[in-house]
């Protein structure tokens, strides 16, 4: 049995690590397709390590398209700018290794600190917070919107012209949030996606909001990437590392525990709370945050006495197996450790591979190929209706990219409808919009 | 303090009202949203609205291709001297020197009080995270300009202008024939007044209810009171005694990590405790001591150990 666990954990990690390098392809999509295929066995010794391995592998490796292709998923919204800086200085490899160090620290944090305390603490926290999750989400939304400071309006004397100049980016952020929220309501109440693939309802929107805009920008701008140095040495000091781990652990933990809040939002909140400014600490924190968010959210399903699922992986897992004992919990933790080790070992070679790929082909060509892949994947999963949703979402996703506002505002696609639903006014709002 | 600290203090304040907690459990997020929003509102009013309408008498915009420290020094000196001679306030804005999308040329303005002069140093190129860009080695340039009177800084004697929006001053003459350069004068003026908070609270009471009014005032006042720990103070009683500005206790800087995180963490603990108190049943495995142990003592021990570890690491690095 132990060899079965090791093999499936490692295999899940290897497969998802490689697939994570494909922009627009999320591990939940792959897990969903695996389930749909009907070839998934129900025994926990296979399904738990396999799914755990896939999630951990994705959490560690999905950094790479964020750094090298600037096509992140929603949990990596903040990693793009510092990662891009490293890429444009020829230090993309170093940037990916720093983030991988963060992922490794996140794994230790999760398995050695959070997991042993979780059964004692989380059930209490869940009982206390459960009736109040809706307003916590509303507070997160309010802070997100209020905390975007105007970027322009620096030059010139005071007056309306300066005010309008200052508010361009902030206004664009608000427009992005509400437009994406509107899209989210449509997808929730009158989705054009066929009901046979309803579990992938949100996928075209996410791809359109987060992946497509950057790929399009790369193609249009024709940016060229300087030669990359394959050198993992960095000046990552202890202070930067520890601050990053601290911030990332907090952000990822918050996002894993509270529903709807994604890794990107968790990272944003913890970055503010810990006054994180240093780029290296930031990259570390994003590595920690992604791993704690994805793997921690999945692990919550296994915490004895808790029984909550966070993230698509948990919901998919529940469809075939519901864990309930300490045996399952330890099985999941062991699978995470194995999968984490495997995926961390793959960071270097896969980063090297991506650098070679970027070096051999122009960035524009790679972005074009990625764009085609994205179109194919979305069409294969959700059909031409999904393509339509993706294109509409891309239009919204281009607003922050072109006008300099936060890309995180695109998370309105899930935040706004879910907050309304959790407060009990979702149907009313949908009615006002004519969706019911 | 940073925005998230003020926001979380506002939400925590709302949680102390059991009626608000009950409303939250029943599906109404309003009171907590009001707490958070009005906890952050004073800074929002300043940084997102008022600063764009604030007019200046002198605007200094250095040439990014060849920044001239003498021009900057002369501009600052002119503001001080005009204020002293004309015996009226003079507003001056110092713009930053943008070199690229993520590059800025840093310069500093220092009031040399004993020598009665302004010293400006144009320094290195930095990124938006304020780290120096080694690849752009620029020769440091310095200049100074004389002042006609003494200066009594209300913030720090040296101000660095590097990223985003630059600093501004209100040069205000004093009765003892000096000039006070009030740092970012548009900040913490009318927006950080308890009187304004009271007005918001009255409006909130009319629109919603008394509880909303109390939360609004409490969150607004909490923001203002927390700001007193810093260096800038505020006009607590604007528009009554508009000229009376507190000096701040100068205990923390707004960007200091520990005070900000401490405010957020303790706010979260307070929220948790208030939500726990409102539960209709008690949780057997939980008590206040456990909250103190896991929420206060353990993190405190961890922080102290980490700081010792890091300071020991830094010292051994320095000695090596």
List the helices and strands and how they pair.
The complex is a heterodimer of chains A (436) and B (320).
Chain A: H1 2-19, H2 27-37, H3 44-61, H4 63-69, H5 80-88, H6 92-129, H7 133-146, H8 160-189, H9 203-221, H10 238-257, H11 263-273, H12 279-299, H13 312-318, H14 326-360, H15 363-403, H16 412-423, H17 426-432
Chain B: H1 3-15, H2 18-25, H3 30-53, E1 58-60, H4 69-86, E2 90-94, E3 97-100, E4 103-112, E5 117-127, E6 141-146, E7 150-151, E8 158-161, E9 168-173, E10 178-183, H5 194-207, H6 210-227, H7 257-277, H8 288-319
Parallel strand pairs in B: 1-2, 7-10
Antiparallel strand pairs in B: 2-9, 3-4, 4-5, 4-8, 5-6, 9-10
> How would you state the average pLDDT of chain B, rounded?
89
C-alpha end-to-end distance of chain A: 52 Å
Residue windows where pLDDT falls under 50 for at least 5 positions of chain B: none
Provide mean pLDDT of chain A, rounded.
Answer: 88
- Tally of individual domains of chain A: 1
Radius of gyration of chain A: 21 Å
Q: Could you give a short account of the major beta sheet of chain B?
A: 5 strands, mixed
Tell me the span between the first and last alpha carbons of chain B. Answer: 36 Å
Helix content of chain B: 40-55%
What is the string of SSEs of chain A from the N terminus onward? HHHHHHHHHHHHHHHHH
Percent of residues in beta strands of chain B: 15-25%
Q: From N to C, what is the helix and strand string of chain B? A: HHHEHEEEEEEEEEHHHH
């Amino acid at each position: 049995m132990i060899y079965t666990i090791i093999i499936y954990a490692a295999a899940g990690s290897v497969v998802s690590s490689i697939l994570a390098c494909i922009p627009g392809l999320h591990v939940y999509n792959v897990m969903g397709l695996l389930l749909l295929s009907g070839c998934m066995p129900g025994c926990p010794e296979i399904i738990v390590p396999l799914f755990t391995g896939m999630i951990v592998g994705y959490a560690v490796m999905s950094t790479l398209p964020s750094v090298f292709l600037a096509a992140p998923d929603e949990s990596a919204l903040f990693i793009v700018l510092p990662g891009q800086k490293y890429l444009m200085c020829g230090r993309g490899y170093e940037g990916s290794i720093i983030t991988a160090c963060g992922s490794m620290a996140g794994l230790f944090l999760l398995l050695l600190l959070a997991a042993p305390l979780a059964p004692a603490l989380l059930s209490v926290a869940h009982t206390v917070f459960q009736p109040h999750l809706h307003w916590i989400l509303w507070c997160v939304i309010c802070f997100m919107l209020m905390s975007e400071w105007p970027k322009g309006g620096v030059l010139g004397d005071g007056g309306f012209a300066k005010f309008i100049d200052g508010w361009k980016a902030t206004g664009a952020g608000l427009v992005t949030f509400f437009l994406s929220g509107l899209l989210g309501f449509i997808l929730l109440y009158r989705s054009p996606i066929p009901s046979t693939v309803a579990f992938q309802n949100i996928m075209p929107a996410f791809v359109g909001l987060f992946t497509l805009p950057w790929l399009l920008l790369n193609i249009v701008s024709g940016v060229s990437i300087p030669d990359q140095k394959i050198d993992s040495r960095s000046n990552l000091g202890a202070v930067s590392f520890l601050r990053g781990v601290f911030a990332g652990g907090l952000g990822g933990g918050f996002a894993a525990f509270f529903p709807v809040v994604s890794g990107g939002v968790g990272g944003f909140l913890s970055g503010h709370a810990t006054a994180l400014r240093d780029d290296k600490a930031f990259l570390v924190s994003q590595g920690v945050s992604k791993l704690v968010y994805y793997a921690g959210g999945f692990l919550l399903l296994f915490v004895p006495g808790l029984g909550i699922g966070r993230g698509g992986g948990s919901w998919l897992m529940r469809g075939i197996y519901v864990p309930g004992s300490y045996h399952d919990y330890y099985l999941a933790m062991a699978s995470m450790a194995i999968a984490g080790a495997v995926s961390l070992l793959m960071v270097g070679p896969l980063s090297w591979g991506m650098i070679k790929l970027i070096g051999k082909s122009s960035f524009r060509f790679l972005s074009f190929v990625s764009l085609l892949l994205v179109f194919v994947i979305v069409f294969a999963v959700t059909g031409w209706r999904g393509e339509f949703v993706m294109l509409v979402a891309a239009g919204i996703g281009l607003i922050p990219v072109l006008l300099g506002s936060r890309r995180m505002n695109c998370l309105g696609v899930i935040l706004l409808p879910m907050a309304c639903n959790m407060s009990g006014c979702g149907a009313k709002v949908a009615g006002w919009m004519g969706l019911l | 303090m940073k925005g998230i600290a003020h926001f979380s203090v506002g939400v925590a304040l709302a949680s102390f009202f059991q009626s608000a907690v009950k409303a939250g459990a029943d599906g109404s997020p309003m009171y907590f949203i009001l707490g958070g929003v009005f906890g952050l509102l004073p800074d929002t009013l300043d940084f997102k609205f008022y600063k764009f309408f604030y007019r200046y008498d002198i605007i200094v915009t250095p040439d990014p291709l060849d920044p001239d420290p003498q021009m900057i020094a002369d501009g600052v000196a002119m503001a001080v001297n005009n204020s002293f001679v004309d015996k009226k306030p003079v507003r001056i804005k110092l713009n930053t020197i943008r070199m690229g999308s993520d590059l800025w040329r840093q310069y500093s303005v220092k009031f040399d009080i004993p020598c009665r002069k302004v010293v400006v140093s144009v320094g290195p190129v930095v990124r938006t995270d304020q780290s120096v860009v080694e690849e752009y080695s620029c020769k440091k340039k310095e200049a100074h300009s004389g002042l006609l009177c003494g200066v009594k800084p209300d913030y720090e004697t040296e101000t660095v202008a590097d990223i985003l929006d630059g600093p501004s001053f209100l040069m205000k003459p004093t009765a003892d024939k000096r000039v006070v350069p009030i740092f970012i004068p548009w900040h913490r003026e009318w927006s950080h007044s308890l009187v304004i908070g009271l007005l918001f609270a009255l409006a909130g009471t009319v629109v919603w209810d008394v509880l909303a009014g109390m939360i609004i005032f409490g969150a607004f006042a909490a923001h203002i009171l927390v700001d007193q720990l810093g260096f800038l103070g505020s006009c607590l009683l604007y528009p009554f005694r508009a000229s009376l500005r507190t000096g701040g206790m100068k205990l923390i800087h707004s960007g200091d990590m520990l005070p900000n995180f401490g405010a957020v963490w303790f706010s979260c603990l307070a929220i948790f405790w208030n939500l726990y108190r409102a539960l209709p049943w008690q949780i057997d495995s939980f008590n206040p001591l456990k909250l103190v142990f896991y929420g206060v003592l353990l993190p405190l021990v961890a922080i102290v150990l980490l700081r010792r570890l890091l300071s020991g690491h830094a010292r051994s690095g320095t000695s090596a």
